[in-house]
Amino acid sequence: MDRRTLLKAGLVTTAGGLVIPAVDGLDDSAEAAPRVAKVLARNLATPWGIAFLPNGDALVGERDSGRVHRVRKGGGRRRVGQLQVRSEKANWGEGGLLGLALSPTFRRDRWVYAYISTGSDNRIVRMRFADGSLGRPRVVLAGIPTNTHHNGGRLVFHRGLLYASTGDAENGSLAQNRGSLAGKILRLTPDGRVPQGNPFGNYTWSYGHRNIEGIAFDDRGNLWASEFGDDRRDELNRIVRGGNYGWPHVEGGDGRGGYRDPLTTWSPENCSPSGIAIAGGRAFIGGLRGHALWAVRLHGPGAGRRVRYFHERFGRIRTVQKAPDGRLWITTSNHDGRPSTPHPNDDRIIRLAL
Q1: Of 111, 260, 286, 309, most Cβ neighbours within 10 A?
Q2: Is-cis flag, bond preceding 248, omega within 30?
Q3: Residue 8: its pLDDT value, please?
Q4: What is the pLDDT of residues 240-298, one digit of tens each?
């Protein structure tokens, strides 16, 4: 069937040619729908990064204010610090205090990592979390290109190394320049050095990205990234060492054209994918413009199949993070400057059970 016939039948194709349903509510009894367990915190200003502490509480950063809160796993919050950041919320800006991550040896060294926007660049910093508060930030990696939009910002540790997603800073040519820090997934040591095994002898792990706000590893060690398209196709990509994902030459997949194709793309649905968490073989992805939580099957015969949850229930969903107890924490993003109608007590952090 051609694309028009597929759409009339309620179907779409993935970049790899797999035909899947394009509507909500796929009938798959083996995949339980997430359900709301508790609202953990209220009245936050665009919560973005989440980093879980060993006891199950979490550090949560506010994008535009730079404030960091400790949110208790049972509910409630307390401010523990504030970073100086550049936001540009009035211009629909996307910078500020973005991703947070804990050192893999946090119990010993107490390092908390943050991705922040300044007046001149995006950078990764780290600070000690001791005696209930954050210490002075120290630069780990500076000079990541910045702009009002497309700042990337997600951080995740895997096997002792730090992975960071960066945007193209509204300059698509930087994404194809393997020597630039923009439009990439970067891989670095905890103290900011280039580790052995990086494909080009610098920080670049993968390139050709427009703007990635979500990265996460599955239990097989695969890295997945949710990426904003330009105006047609948002993407979910499996990231491989040295892979070129095509931006700005390609949006979505190009088949056998030489670039890495996504597992799936959103078209014609709205998504604007931001945070991503992986649980039970599915990637759970926050949809901003799409006002929903999406779940995408990652492996097996149904790989690429999508289900949409909570459509229009919470508004813009920014971050999705898997807690140590296996539940998901999501953040709303209805005060981020984009068109949206905030709900009472927004922005909120909501715990979901699977």
Answers
A1: 286
A2: yes
A3: 35
A4: 999 999 999 999 999 988 999 999 999 888 999 999 999 999 999 999 999 999 999 99
Give the residues of the chain that fall short of pLDDT 50.
1-29
- Cα 302 to chain centroid, rounded: 23
Summarize pLDDT for 13-36 with one digit per residue, the tens.
444 444 444 334 433 435 789 999
